Amino acid sequence: MADSERLSAPGCWIACTNFSRTRKGILLFAEIILCLVILICFSAPANGQAYYSSLPVFEMILAAVFFVIYMCDLHTKIQFINWPWSDFFRALIAAILFLITSIIVLVEKGKASKIIAGVLGLISTCLFGYDAYITFPFRQQRHTAAPTDPADGP
Predict the structure, then answer these.
(1) Where are the bilayer-spanning segments (predicted)?
(2) What is the pTM assigned to this prediction?
(3) Which of 30, 35, 34 lies closest to 53 in space, CA to CA?
(4) Pairwise CA distance, residues 27 & 30, whole Å
């Protein structure tokens, strides 16, 4: 049993590292890191306004869950969830919520760390928006032109 676990481990590691090099893997990893940095910036001032930090925590967890699902190839094994639409709505809602939160934070004019978090929130809006754009399910369905018979003329 130990031999079979040892033999399957390199295959799993290769699959994990292969996904992390794809465009979707890099995008999800960047979302996780950016949400972590925004969370640190929102948590830096000790003024009791921790309600802004719930959005980056929630989106960081969701991005990590989708990263693991795609990395372990679970989206092909679990068929009762439509993964492209789920990922699209996750990214779209995150982009909208980060935009709203960033505008509110930047209008309030707080400490420097709050302003940095607002600017990083605008950057994350672009990142999540790009993720929603490349994940949009209808965009991925490419149709090829039907072959036509050459017209020889009358």
Answers:
(1) 26-45, 57-76, 88-107, 113-133
(2) 0.76
(3) 35
(4) 5
